[in-house]
Write a structure and sequence with these properties.
The strands form 5 sheets. Strands 1, 2, 3, 4, 5, 17, 20 and 21 form an 8-stranded mixed β-sheet that branches. Strands 9-10-11-14-15-16 form a 6-stranded parallel β-sheet, sandwiched between helices. The protein is 28% helix and 21% strand. By secondary structure, the chain is an alpha/beta fold. The chain folds into 2 domains: 88 residues, Urease, subunit C, domain 1 (Roll); 313 residues, Alpha-Beta Barrel (TIM Barrel). The longest helix has 17 residues. It comes from Methylophaga aminisulfidivorans MP.
């Protein structure tokens, strides 16, 4: 299909281009930007007057719940939700069931993603077999199968010798290690940030040291092994400082933050609102401010949804007994753009954190608007005020604390490989 996107404000953070141009698409590729090619006749024309034309968004951490938890969500439901959120590439952590520790599981996920056809689904291979932190997974086979990196998911490796060997093995394969930093002993003590709010609510606290101790250990091993590493979902000001110092020393480390941690703090727990139960927990206002500063100065180069769809029953019961997690695919863009509206982050930095920067972290040729690039494109309406209603999410997960929030920057169209996979009603 040949598609023309006309009169839009084209923003390509990778090249820092920002201007009103037409985009021409044929056979899934961008064939021209600006002047129309001779003989080009569009099968479909999208009038993007008043809209932002952006590269499709890239999300570094999305749990699709398939295979293993199809009763909660599936690859079909969640890639539909991704398309509705302007996301054309999602990266799946290895903690599926079965675990992504062999090529067969990679092939299963890729096959079902192709049948859905709404977004690119990339996989992270397991660092250890069955994520049990004992025997190393066959990383070479996982890389050959298409895994873009390795991770132990939400299961921290307690044994530093095993972690060191895993990093050294990954370094020989030129694979990126993706780390969710958490000291398992300190984190297991609670469910919210340790401080005045946890004391007032009578809930077990998780100290900032649960994150900073893990980051400190991992940085030492990264320096020793020379592996390229990415830190998922930072939540504390001290962790941001540790990453900044490591980058200044030349260590090959990057980091991301969830969109919800950039807006909420421990004070948003309300009256034991289980929808705000996440790991790592929402921390202090100062932590939140320093996370925003980390995005502004590039220490944190990507913003992710850390999407975890849950059943309604998973958020019922006493706070500490509920499951942590937020359904974030459809709030990733509006929450990020809300930072722009609040003058916390400029527009180009925000879009880069959702497009070209995560592409660079994954080492994929995506997240750009240029001639010859795959036509993964998101059209954004910056003036479409709407109220967040999780019950109306396309995702099977309705677990979000943002009900009633007013958002702008709604996705109007999403193109994946040159095909229109979402169009706003």
């Amino acid at each position: 299909m040949k598609i023309r996107i006309k009169n839009g404000r084209v923003i390509d953070p990778a090249s820092q281009f920002d201007g009103r141009q037409d985009v021409y698409i044929s056979n899934g590729k961008i064939i021209a930007i600006g002047e129309q090619l001779d003989g080009f006749e569009a099968d479909k024309t999208i009038d993007a007057t008043g809209l932002i034309v952006s590269p499709g968004l890239i999300d570094l951490s999305v749990r699709l719940r398939e295979p293993g938890q199809e009763h909660t969500a599936t690859i079909l439901t969640e890639t539909k939700a991704a398309a509705a959120g302007g996301i054309t590439t999602v990266c799946v952590p290895p903690d599926t069931a079965p675990v992504i520790d062999n090529p067969t599981v990679v092939e299963l996920i890729e096959d079902r993603a192709k049948k859905s056809g709404r977004s690119m689904v990339l996989t992270m291979g397991a660092m250890t077999q069955n994520l049990n932190s004992e025997l190393l997974a066959e990383m070479a086979r996982l890389k050959a199968a298409g895994c873009v990196g390795i991770s132990n998911g939400l299961s921290p490796i307690k044994n530093s010798v095993i972690l060191q060997r895993a990093m050294a093995y990954a370094a020989t394969l030129d694979m990126t290690v993706f780390i969710t930093p958490a000291d398992p002993w300190l984190q297991s003590q609670g469910c919210v940030h340790e401080g005045a709010v946890s004391s007032r609510l009578g809930l077990g606290g998780i100290a900032e040291s649960a994150e900073t101790i893990a980051v400190s250990r991992d940085l030492i091993l990264i320096e020793q092994t020379g592996v390229r590493a990415h830190f998922h979902n930072l939540s504390t000001a001290k962790a941001v400082k540790l990453i900044r110092d490591a980058q200044n020393r030349g260590l090959p480390v990057t980091a991301d933050v969830s969109a919800h941690h950039l807006h909420l703090s421990e004070h948003d727990l309300g009256n034991y609102d289980a929808l705000s139960h996440v790991l790592p927990p929402f921390r202090s206002i100062r932590d939140r401010e320093q996370l925003q500063q980390g995005v502004r100065d590039g220490v944190i180069s990507a913003i992710s949804s850390h999407h975890q769809p849950l059943d309604k029953d998973d958020k019922l019961g006493p706070f500490a007994e509920t499951k942590p997690g937020i359904s974030g695919l459809e709030t990733l863009l509006p929450l990020t753009m809300k930072l722009v509206e609040d003058d916390e982050v400029n527009l180009h930095t925000a879009l880069a954190a959702l497009t070209c920067n995560p592409a660079d972290i994954l080492g994929i040729d995506s997240g750009q608007l240029k001639v010859g690039a795959t036509a993964d494109i998101c059209l954004i309406d910056p003036d479409s005020e709407y109220e967040c209603q999780p019950l109306n999410f396309v995702s099977a997960g309705k677990n979000s604390p943002f009900e009633g929030w007013l958002f702008n920057h709604q996705v109007s169209h999403t193109l994946f490989h040159g095909r229109l996979v979402h169009e706003r009603d």
